[in-house]
Task: structure prediction
Amino acid sequence: MVTKTYEEINEKIRQKKAVVVTAEEVIAMVEAHGLAKTAKEVDVVTTGTFGPMCSSGAFLNTGHCKPKIKMQKAWLNDVSAYAGLAAVDIYIGATEVPDNDPGTFEYGGGHVIEDLVAGKDVTLKAIAYGTDCYPRKELKTLINLKDMNQAVLTNPRNAYQNYNCAINLSDKVIHTYMGTLKANAGNANYCSAGQLSPLLKDPFYKTIGIGTRIFLGGAQGYVYWEGTQHSPTAKRGENGVPRSPAGTIAVVGNLKEMSTHYLKGASFEKYGTTLIVGIGIPIPILNEEILKYAAISDKDIYTQIVDYGFDYPQGVAKSHGEISYAQLKSGKISFNGKDIPTAPLSSYAKAREIAGVLADWIKEGKFFLGAPVRTLDLNDKFKPLIERPV
Amino acid sequence: MVSHRIVLIFSKDIVDKPYTYHLVKDYNLLVNILRAKISPEEEGLLVLEVEGKRTDFENGMKYLKEYGVKILPLVKEIKRDKDRCYNCGACTAVCPSGALHINKSNWFVDFDEKKCVLCEACVKGCPTRSIKILFPDFVN
Result:
């Protein structure tokens, strides 16, 4: 039995001798050479994903103006940022849209973040009630990411471990965060990198937890907590992989080091705006078991077909069938006896690119593994809100 | 045989004649309407793909010009901003003709201009708004 430690692998990285392959490449290696031999050879398997992740945003400290202001309400390019923090700390969330948005959602918080990362000047507008220590009541100025004290991408929920395959069983076309869904199950959209997706390749979070160093938006970031709605108790297959949305991670990183190549503002028709986030997580091959999970392929990863015409909006938890990512990626699935076309919202091309970039960083000795201070919870359940009307 | 994509502009006073019918019946042309914006008392626009014998095509165009229809070749059609496009594939869900499709070898979204019917579904179907349909300036 091969066993390796984080320290041993990091030492190999330091010497630029670590053997690193992507979560896609490792599948063929294990098929050809078996678990034992591959576990001995490979030190790290890299994963990647690039998709819309609505629970994303950034904490910004703009610096103090003269005289000082304690921002009560703030806007960046007319998009409201949360100011209920200390004087000049604000949080810009990805899905915030301008107060007067006509419903087209062409520009929102995700776009503000992208513009900041692009180095563009952004208009900061703020109002305040004024205090003895912070007398100013109004502020309108251009600001730039490079001049801020801190800008920290802080995403409470990213990199969902698996996600629904969305269809629409109603008789009208609908526009959702899962894209456009034609009436009467005219198409099916899905949103996961499948065999490259980080949490699907370490299904029991044996190596992922608080302090895990990751690729985030083109920079090095960290997992800081379980993500919101973390639900590891979701139904799993015999191979341990969840068959519906399950675990999530909360991530953090320095926005100033990120790139618009891996962070993009996005608009979903009749839904709103969001941020498309690039994430890559290295999985250290500490033993054969970890490798076994990392080598699971699309044909053995399943998700549920969910109706967004009625069930999803009404809170009805119902599956209309189970489908593998191999089937989804073939471009069509069979549903109720007819073939319906599939389309992804998460870019597999970009997931592959991110896994490759992360592998290169590790091989070149630029990226070291962060051993988790504690791994992610395995008992949480996804609960609905029980309303108690008042 | 020739095949051309053309934009026809009708002024208000000539918008009510069945030009397409005559192109088909009198000039033997195969006409595929890609886009139409015609309302009474307003300037009209018709984007056509016209196929037929060269002489038939030329005579058909001459017929249109005699009635004062402006004819322009459809030069710029669809433009993809390769920097903004992240090859997710969302556009392939809304594209009715298969013009936008995923290339399975590299998972990039490919665009087959010949199959495009200019329906514009991809314009709003693209989360990063990286697809634009460009009509000649006078159309907008």
Q: What stands out?
A: The longest helix of chain B spans residues 54-66. The helical segments of chain B are 19-25, 54-66, 90-94, 121-125.
